[in-house]
Amino acid sequence: MTPAPDRYAVIGHPIAHSRSPWIHAQFAKQTGEHVSYAAIDLAPAELTPRLRDFFVQGGRGLNVTVPHKQAVLPLLDELSERARIAGAVNTVIRQPDARLRGDNTDGSGFIRDLTHNLGFSVSARRVLLLGAGGATRGLLAPLLALEPAELVIANRSPERAAELAQRFASRGAVRGCGYEALGSQRFELIINGTAASLDQQLPPLPLAVLEAATICYDLAYAAGGTRFVRWAREHGVARCVDGTGMLVEQAADSFMLWRGVRPDTAPVLATLAA
Ligand code: NDP
Fold it and tell me: Is 104:93 a contact under the CB 8 Å cutoff?
C-alpha cells in the first residue's frame, strides 16, 4: 500500500484565488516528492486553534498569506534570521522534534524574480515601495542589500511606513511617508505591496510618480494582470508585471525548505505565462 503523502497547505483569508496548490503540484510532479498541498481559508479568529490542529494531525508545513503573516509569529517555536528581521512569516516548517520554525521566502522569491527572471538591477536605482504590511516587511532587507540609491516606503497610514523605515534604517537609505508627500518624485522601480489589488482597488499613487517609472511590479497577481498592472500600462509605463513570478519563486524556496530540493521554476513560469 502506498503511504499517504506528506501534507502541506497555504492558509489565508481570502484564499480561493490562490495558485499555490497548482504550483506545488507541478513541483511535486517534477521532483517526484510524495506530497499533497491544500488551500485552507482561515478567518483571523480561527488561526490559533486550526494551525495547532493542522500540525497535531501530522501536517508537515504551511505557507502563510494575507492577513496572517505577522499574527502567526507568537504561535511558532523559533524563527529564521530573515523572518526575524522581517517580523513576518510566510513559511512554517515542522521540524523532526515537532518544533515549529517560521521562515520568510517572500524576499528571496521577489529578488530572484526581479533580478534573475526580469533582469532588473536595483543598485543605484530609486525604488518606491507601496504598503507597509506583511509582504513589504519581507522585501526590505533583501532590497536594501542590493544598495538602491534610495528606497521610499509610502503607505495609506504614513506612521506605519515611517515606523518600518526606522526599523530598517541601519541597512541603507530608506524613509517612509504618505502618498501625498511623494509629489512628482521619480522612481525607476515601483512595487505595489498593498493589498488594494485584492479588492480591485488602486493605491492613491500620484499620476506624475507613476508615469515617470520604468518598471511597475505588483506583488498581487491575477489572470490578465491586476488592476494596478493595467493602470500602469495604460499610463505608459514600459514594463508592468504582476506577482506571478514572485509567487513561483517564493514557492520554490518554501519547497526547498520542506523537501531539501529546489524545483526548476522555468517550466512552471512558462505554463503560467501561456
Ligand atoms: P497586509 O494585509 O499585511 O498589508 C496590507 C497593506 O496594504 C497595508 O500597508 C495597507 O495599508 C495597504 N492597503 C490595503 N488596502 C489598501 C488600499 N485600498 N489602498 C492603499 N493601501 C492599501 O497584506 P500583505 O502585505 O501580506 O500582502 C500585500 C499584497 O501582496 C497582497 O496583494 C498579496 O496578495 C501580495 N503578496 C504576493 C505574494 C506573491 O508571492 N506574489 C507574496 C506575498 C504577498 P494600511 O497600513 O494603511 O492599512
Answer: no
> pLDDT tens, 36-87?
999 999 999 999 999 999 999 999 999 999 899 999 999 999 999 999 999 9
> Quick one: pLDDT band at residue 106, thresholds 50, 70, 90?
very high
Annotated catalytic residue, options 69, 94, 101, 137: 69
Q: 195 alpha carbon to ligand 1 midpoint, in Å?
A: 3
Q: Is 29 a catalytic residue?
A: no
Measure the CA–CA gap between 164 and 168, rounded to whole angstroms: 7
- Model pTM? 0.94
CB atoms under 10 Å from CB of 150, counted, come to 15
DSSP string, 3-69: PPPEEEEEEESS-TT--HHHHHHHHHHHHT--EEEEEEE--GGGHHHHHHHHHHTT--EEEE-TT-T
Is 160 close to ligand 1, i.e. is its CB under 6 Å away?
yes
